[in-house]
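Narrative of activities, Objective 1.

The group set out to show that a structural description can be obtained from nothing but a protein's sequence at a throughput compatible with the screening campaign. Below is one input-output pair from the validation batch, recorded exactly as produced.
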Amino acid sequence: MNSLLFQNESFFEDLFRQYYKALKAYAFKYVGDMDTAEDIVQDVFFECWLKRDNIRIETQIRPYLFKAVSNKSLNFLKSKEEREKVPLEIRHESQIQDFYLKSLVAEQEDFLLLKELNEEIKSCVDRLPEQCRKIFILRHTYDLKNREIAEQLNISIKAVEKQITKALFEIRRHLQRLDLLPFVIYVLLRALS
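Output recorded for this entry:
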């Protein structure tokens, strides 16, 4: 892998977003503690960033990151064993299962939440005035540009912009009324993490 890419800050941030969850789950399999797993993964990325000028990756980045997390996890367990005299072979299978179960439940909750949000947004859009509804659907369902909508409906681009703004205002107000707006933010933040 080109080491210059590794030095690019936005590339590095993309790597973090792409691999963070998988690496955290991988570290958790070793250490059996979510906070420690997070610390290990963050340490690996931090060390990679500090050593970015000297890192030479001959293969793909994924195996490199997983190997780094594995090594750091094993080092943690060794030092923990020395501190607590706990054998390395002890693993917390029930904690691993709990983690995967919680992940599965969280994904299911996100799915149900998104479904509810979509239904509420659709319900609000269905109640918009006809022209406003039509413009919003052309923009957000069919992904037409404002200019294309204006040409298709024989109206000005300003009129299209005004109707889209009105639709978004109504949707936001509807979600606030139902106290669902915080969930929109929550789902967006989970999607980015």
